[in-house]
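User: I'm curious whether this sequence folds into something compact or stays loose and floppy. Could you predict its structure so I can see for myself?
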Amino acid sequence: MLIEAREQHSPNIAGVDFTSAAFLGRPRELFAATHEVNANIKDPEKRLGVELYPFLRKVVLGDMLHTITFGKSPFPIGVTEDRVRSWQKEFPLTKVERIHLEFNFDKQEENHRIFVGERENGKMHQAYQVIWKVYFGPAISMRGVELAHALEDQRVGVNAHMNVWGGFAKIGRTEEVKQKVAFALGENERDYDIEQRLLPERQYVYNPVRVAELVEQLNLDGMVLGIDHAFDEGQDIAELLNSEEVRKNTRVIHFAKSNHGIITPQDAQAEQVLRQIKETAFDKGPVRIAFDFGPDAIKGLNHGQIVEKMQVLREWALAA
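Assistant: Here's the prediction. I'll summarize afterward.
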């Protein structure tokens, strides 16, 4: 039975996505579970989409670790055009909405964040930057952009943190990136000690209002409002949603707790924030809610349990 028959949707929510942040070691599972959920949804516009983190470097290393640990390795495996096409051939109801570009602009920033930029945030965040350097690489490589471009038949866009857009702007390549993809979005993230050669002020990193201003200055197509990163910074979500700049530019909302923590319908704070989002009229039209959880979200869950969790979260996000 198709589930639309009993659903009433919020007019300010266009659709729901899951990012691959929870599936770094199991990206095929993301495609499989999304396909199964979508098999029960008649309206293509209301089907789940996916946002991919393009872990393209060290594909052989990632695959080897997964082989010798019988799929238990927590490290990412490669996400390439060939693999995405293969997974979509197997699970044709899964559509890629966006590619999340690499976290750092170039090699200089990778090293800066490891040794300086993330020092104030602690050793764990410095360690994460080492992992991203090994498995992700810098945005200047254009790997993430080229992956989105290769999937242009699906109108795949990209989103990136503002340090990346600041870097492309500095070398005059923003328009080149935009021409290769269906749309280009900027996103707020956690605060860190950014190099001024990329952005003149730290607030352009983490303050959604300032991010929205820079999105307009760079003529991007809109912004991803990172609720998880707003939680990281202790920001007032209602105040952000009341900001004219944020309302004018938001097209996608990343929804998770601080540090990509898990959100459930039983979470009173999350329910309040979701209600505030649903009551907000965004200038660019209804927004997509993208659940952006870390790997703990599916730890220990089998395929059926993942599908059930996705169904519950989708219905909660869309409900009027």
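Summary: The CA atoms of residues 130 and 261 lie 21 Å apart. The first strand starts at residue 13 and ends at 19.
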